[in-house]
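Deliverable D5.2: sample structural annotation.
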Amino acid sequence: MIDTVIFDMDGTLIDSEKFWQQAEREIFTSLGAVWKEEIANQTTGKTVREVSELWYSLYPWEGRTFDQVEQDVIDRVGVLMQQDGRAKEGVLETLEFLCESGIKIGLATNSPVQLIHIALEKLGISKYFETLVSAFDVPEGKPAPDVYLKAAKDLGSLPKNCIAVEDSITGSKAGSNAGMTVVAIPDNLPFDDIRFDFVDYKLHSMKEFSDRISGVLKKGILES
């Protein structure tokens, strides 16, 4: 009985994970960190504070507070989004399909509100979303379920009637922890990564969404 779909943002709606990597590399190396891909790959899906704490634990800096460093990263990601932000394949078609199907649409992300507005305006998709929830709005970011639970509450939806659409393991765990059906579309990880085995559906791209999920949605609409 699905009546709601709640999307992650980075790597799911907008091809922005590379922007986070670039911004983090620029900012943290300027503070003395030695960039290592194996460390950077651990940060996908994490909050800006968690990423900052990770790099600080390895390469402590002086003269900048966590708040200042985080804002530097956020500001840089915002500039990159405005310059080169692109929708992930199939996003526009999927949002239109859901809208025409009468499905409620929300967004739940670890990104700050500042970047949510930049991303949605850049892609021209703000009109589809009935609620926008940032990890900065709730006690804990993903993998805690807080952002998804707040989005569902905002929409007047029960978690069991929601689909969470994610690209990362961290985000997929958040959707699962919220008691939602989880659709994973791996971005920076191999499609067959066994850590995604707990999700309900796994797609190669958003282009597959309407074909693979339409039966579930139609059932929800008929029974609601």
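Annotation notes: The first strand starts at residue 4 and ends at 7. The radius of gyration is 17 Å.
The annotation will be released with the project's public dataset once the embargo ends.
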